[in-house]
Amino acid sequence: MAKIQIKQVKSRIGRPERQKRTLDALGLKKLNQVVVHENTPAIMGRVFKVRHLVEVTEVVE
Known about the structure:
This protein has helices at 17-26, 41-49, and strands at residues 3-8, 34-38, 54-59. By secondary structure, it is of the alpha+beta class. It has a three-stranded antiparallel β-sheet with strand order 2-1-3, with no helix packed on it. Helix 1 (17-26) packs antiparallel against helix 2. The chain is globular, with a radius of gyration of 11 Å.
């Protein structure tokens, strides 16, 4: 399955608790932190909820 790279590019300060928990669920704790996940519907749903805080790129293997 394809993988995606997710990078937090905006701060979580001042954001609703729900968005903070979504970032935690994605494994993002700090600004400019990068995580790699499988491209599944569940992960993409989480990314969609915080799309204004993250940057997504496809990983080429």
